[in-house]
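Human: Here is a favour to ask of a fellow structure person. Comparing notes only helps if you start from a blank page. Give me a protein, with the fold worked out from its sequence. Please set it down just below, with no commentary around it:

Assistant:
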Amino acid sequence: MPGIPMKRLLYSSILPGFVLAVLGLHIMGLSAGPSAKKREAVITYVRGDVQRKVQKQPSWTKAELQAQVITGDSVRTLVESRSEVQLADKTLVRLDEKSAIEIRELEKTQAGVGADISVDEGDVWTAVGNPTAGKFTVASKVAGASVRGTVFRISVGEDESTEVRVYKGEV
């Protein structure tokens, strides 16, 4: 364009577009709503026959190391098998053999990471990353534990009897 320096042309045409694009991405991030709060967990240890069921899917599949686990997913271990699921705040949920859990809710709030885990059978040991952060509950069909400490175990028998052992802190 005659008479307009190239530098001024660059700033007057490209810079506003860039600013609008960045602003748009920022606004989209802020208005993402409740689904933006959902956080994943990851399977960090697999030994033996460990299976995962994605929410609302009828069949179990082989659980892979580093597989994402989200709200509604389940993980189970079969005979002579073990697994660990790590939440975003470094909370560990360790499944002993013949154990099964369902992640009923998993989210990140301003208070921290929160989780609601159902133990369907077996032994599940939990080391909570930050017990003062988000709400963290583990429950069977007949009992539940709301974490006020850091390390505990919940055992669910074949008859659905439930035992909670606290190693450190309170539940």
